[in-house]
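Hey team,

Filing this mostly as a record. A colleague (T.K.) asked me to run one chain through the structure pipeline before their review meeting, and I want the input and output archived in the tracker in case anyone asks later how it was produced. No errors, nothing strange. Just documentation.

Input sequence:
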Amino acid sequence: MAKEKVLDDEISRKSKVIEEVVFEIVNEYTKPLDNIMKTCRDIFNSEEKINNIELEDLLTQLPSALYFVNEGQELIGIREDISKMVKMENYNLARQKATGTIADKNTEAEMSVVSEELNRVIYQRAYKMIKSKVEMGQEMIASLKRVFDARMKDYELSGGIRG
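Output structure:
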């Protein structure tokens, strides 16, 4: 039990650094989208119903924010691809220089590319987090659009009396 606790503490300590780097990368590209989504949350958590002006504003802001976030997502995807190529190149070089059995060569090569693998994992996780935020932003647009369309239909059916 004590050994498991030590391992959990070590994993937590090491993953904290990686998490911070991933969040820093993600926030660099998603901050405007995050701010809009926080505004949505605040509006939905308030006692007052969202008004049409707020609805229209969010429906125009979200696609613009998603455009730039998607661009950042692709840049992170490029970094992930490059980090994967660098890792493989360094692995192959290390394996070529290694001596011993095939297992020895593989082990030595794997140990030599730990930092490259860490970089790849960081960019992979950042890409996935950004992708998830893009998908949730798209879901928010769809939800807001349904509310807006329902209000417009209600407005048309009432002969324009309600605002």
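Quick notes for T.K.: The radius of gyration is 24 Å. DSSP finds four helices and no strands in the chain.
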